[in-house]
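Fig. S4 source data, part A: sequence.
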Amino acid sequence: MTREAHRIGAALNASLHLHLRNSTTALVPANEAALAWLEPQELAPEMAFFLSLSLEELVTNCIKYGYDDTAEHTIEIELSVTDRRLTIVVIDDGHAFNPLEERPPDLGQPIGNRPIGGLGLHLLREMADEMTYERRDKTNRVSLTKN
């Protein structure tokens, strides 16, 4: 295999694993690392927005609502690109929470009349080509894929 073919093959099948603590201050460096990893993958520009929105929404929800204690917890992020398909998996040990069961916001209501929350998850469900949830070994596993 030529060096160029090897580089292209590596870009088409790449992965990154991040471990961050359940603190909003950990989100910015995690997002920066994810975007730096994504850049050489040569995917469509909207993938960076999708990745950032996914991390912001899923990790923030986990930090804000996932834990009853003040202990430090680890949130895992697994990113992979296979054949130009981005997969994002967020794993946490917080309360069981299936984002697929959340009712979408009523977008027909004026903004001032809508309850706060739910729009980010709705956007992710709309933008992702696939979104799954699994509760396994006392952890939440939310997986998003986008072509």
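Fig. S4 source data, part B ends here. The chain has one domain: 3-146.
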